[in-house]
């Protein structure tokens, strides 16, 4: 009776306090004292000292791993911030908000990242559109001086010519000619006289035209199936332009597909040293459903980030057999976790169940259980929970129920579980969910 009351009291405290689950209690270790001079330690003391030394070693190794992870996180945050700035600034350009674009590109240039040369070019472009000719020329000169080998240099030189030749007030977007009409006219020329249309597009792409204009020119080019159009698109995709146009050309090759496009993409991936371009190729393979090339990259790529990207894309195109092969041959826990994510994206619950039940790595078993929860596989999770003897993995099933919003399963565990701690964990999660069934059970507990 006292045991039952203590359990109810514990549950009532959880409900009344609303304490969030997950706090970790770290038990204090017993440290062996150092021996006095001439004193002989007992075997038990030797064992305690050995354990303490081993724990200190593990703690030190963990600190090193934590610091390295913090460094990687800071780098990732900086890269994410730079990409966010670039995307926001380009969006401002597309919306003809030139002052806003100039400010964001200036901020990006100050971060001195891999996109600094692109930021300087677009800053100069935005300055020119505002009529700031002198400052635009200064930005161009800065780009040419700091990045003499930049692939943006040719675009900057074309912009410089335009800036020096142009006079008059800043551009008013409302007075500009209709680019939609230009695009329609170009499509007509491409249909009737592809050779002439290709010449027009090539000239426009080499000019200081607006980013929207260039993107539309490239789209019209990609839609045309003539040999000349495919050749020019291939040249741009293989790097005979600035990186932004190259990535756009790679994207269009994936959209319009075909053997020629697949061969060009393979060539681009093999020759490019730009991770951004390689990622664009991987996305294009996903768009075209090219499992063979995605599997090749996932298997052979040395860059772990690109490898993991290919694995995720394999999941999106349903490459279940390929993912199975990768999981069997891969030894890295991190890569295997990404493969599990690929199984999740492809809807392959059978493999996740197999990993959750039989894999020797507890971390991978936990990841598989979480994914099953997100997939709503309550029946499979119930079977795992019933058979599992590891408390931490049972708690992971409860987390999966919580992530999947499955209050019914949590109520069932709370009612039947004999382990007080697991019962408490189930109730904690129910107290956070706010479901009708869960709240009814919580009221039952309060009324006992």
Helix/strand layout:
Elements: H1 2-17, H2 43-94, H3 98-110, H4 116-129, H5 133-146, H6 153-165, H7 179-192, H8 194-205, H9 211-223, H10 227-237, H11 243-256, H12 259-271, H13 275-288, H14 291-300, H15 304-316, H16 320-329, H17 333-345, H18 349-358, H19 362-374, H20 378-387, H21 391-403, H22 407-416, H23 420-433, H24 436-446
Helix pairs in contact: 1-23, 2-3, 3-4, 4-5, 4-6, 5-6, 7-8, 7-9, 8-9, 9-11, 10-11, 11-12, 11-13, 12-13, 13-15, 14-15, 15-17, 16-17, 17-19, 18-19, 19-21, 20-21, 21-23, 22-23
CATH homologous superfamily (4th level) name of the domain at 348-448:
Leucine-rich Repeat Variant
The CATH topology name of the domain at 348-448 reads Leucine-rich Repeat Variant
Helices and strands, in N-to-C order?
HHHHHHHHHHHHHHHHHHHHHHHH
Determine the strand fraction and express it as a percent band.
Answer: under 5%
Q: Which CATH first-tier class of the domain at 348-448 would you pick?
A: Mainly Alpha
Distance, first to last CA: 13 Å
**Principal-axis shape:** elongated
Q: Which consecutive residue ranges, at least 5 long each, have pLDDT under 50?
A: 1-8, 10-34
**Share of helical residues:** over 70%
Total strands: 0
Biggest beta sheet attributes: none
H/I helix tally: 24
Radius of gyration: 30 Å
CATH architectural grouping of the domain at 348-448: Alpha Horseshoe
Overall residue-averaged pLDDT value:
82
Structural class: mainly alpha
């Amino acid at each position: 009776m006292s045991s039952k009351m203590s359990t109810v009291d514990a549950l009532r405290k959880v409900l009344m306090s609303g304490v969030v689950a997950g706090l970790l209690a770290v038990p204090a270790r017993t440290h062996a004292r150092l021996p006095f001079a001439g004193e002989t330690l007992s075997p038990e003391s030797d064992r305690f000292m050995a354990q303490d030394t081993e724990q200190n070693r593990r703690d030190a190794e963990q600190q090193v791993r934590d610091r390295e992870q913090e460094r990687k996180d800071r780098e990732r945050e900086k890269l994410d911030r730079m990409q966010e700035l670039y995307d926001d600034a380009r969006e401002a350009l597309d919306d003809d908000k030139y002052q806003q674009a100039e400010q964001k590109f200036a901020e990006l240039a100050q971060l001195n990242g891999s996109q600094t040369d692109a930021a300087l070019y677009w800053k100069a472009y935005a300055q020119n559109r505002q009529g700031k000719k002198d400052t635009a020329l200064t930005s161009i000169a800065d780009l040419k001086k700091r990045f003499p080998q930049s692939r943006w240099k040719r675009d900057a030189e074309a912009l410089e010519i335009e800036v020096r030749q142009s006079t008059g007030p800043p551009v008013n977007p409302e007075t500009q000619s209709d680019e939609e009409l230009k695009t329609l006219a170009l499509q007509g020329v491409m249909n009737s006289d592809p050779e002439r249309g290709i010449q027009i597009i090539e000239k426009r792409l080499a000019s200081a035209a607006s980013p929207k204009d260039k993107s539309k020119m490239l789209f019209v080019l990609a839609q045309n199936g003539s040999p000349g159009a495919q050749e020019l698109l291939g040249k741009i995709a293989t790097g005979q332009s600035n990186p932004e146009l190259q990535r756009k050309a790679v994207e269009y090759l994936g959209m319009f597909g075909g053997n020629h496009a697949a061969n060009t993409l393979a060539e681009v991936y093999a020759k490019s040293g730009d991770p951004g371009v390689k990622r664009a190729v991987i996305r294009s393979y996903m768009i075209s459903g090219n499992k063979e090339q995605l599997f090749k990259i996932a298997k052979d790529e040395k860059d772990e980030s690109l490898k993991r990207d290919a694995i995720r894309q394999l999941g999106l195109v349903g490459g279940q057999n390929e993912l199975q092969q990768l999981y069997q041959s891969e030894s890295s826990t991190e890569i295997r976790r990404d493969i599990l994510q690929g199984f999740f994206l492809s809807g392959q619950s059978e493999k996740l169940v197999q990993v959750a039940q039989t894999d020797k790595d507890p971390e991978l078993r936990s990841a598989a259980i979480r994914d099953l929860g997100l997939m709503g596989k309550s029946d499979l999770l119930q079977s795992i929970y019933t058979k599992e003897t590891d408390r931490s993995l049972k708690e992971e099933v409860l987390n999966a129920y919580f992530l999947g919003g499955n209050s019914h399963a949590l109520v069932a565990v709370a009612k039947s579980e004999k382990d007080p701690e697991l019962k408490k964990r189930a109730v904690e999660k129910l107290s956070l969910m706010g479901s009708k069934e869960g709240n009814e059970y919580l009221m039952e507990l309060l009324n006992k």
